[in-house]
């Protein structure tokens, strides 16, 4: 799940997320994406508001939540040179 919202609503969002996600579910806050001051803060749903406050996240931020942020998620191999697609033959690893 990805949510774009005012950082002042982080605590309320955390409370809503805890109704459907476990407190230890992976989460991330992306603040000022693509700016020189960009921050990517990894946390959990249970520490979302605390993390935003500790890093002085204000204004709007992207909040990402879910297993795709966890260590067990298989990353896409689409751009891996060894991966064969309909458009190119993969190289030997």
UniProtKB/TrEMBL annotation:
InterPro entries hit by this protein: 4pyrrol_Methylase_sf (IPR035996), 4pyrrole_Mease_sub2 (IPR014776)
GO biological processes: methylation
Gene3D superfamilies, per the entry: Methyltransferase, Cobalt-precorrin-4 Transmethylase, Domain 2 (3.30.950.10)
Alphabetized UniProt keyword annotations: Methyltransferase, Transferase
SUPFAM superfamilies for the chain: Tetrapyrrole methylase (SSF53790)
Coiled coil spans: none
GO molecular function, one term: methyltransferase activity
Protein name, per record: Cobalt-precorrin-4 C(11)-methyltransferase
Known EC number: 2.1.1.271
């Amino acid at each position: 799940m990805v949510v774009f919202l005012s950082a002042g609503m982080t605590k309320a969002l955390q409370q809503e997320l805890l109704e459907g996600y476990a407190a230890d579910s992976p989460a991330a806050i992306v603040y000022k994406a693509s700016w020189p001051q960009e921050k990517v803060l990894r946390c959990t749903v249970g520490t979302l508001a605390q993390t935003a406050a500790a890093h002085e996240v204000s204004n709007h931020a992207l909040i990402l939540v879910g297993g795709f942020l966890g260590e067990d998620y298989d990353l896409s191999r689409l751009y891996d040179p060894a991966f064969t697609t309909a458009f190119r033959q993969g190289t030997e690893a």
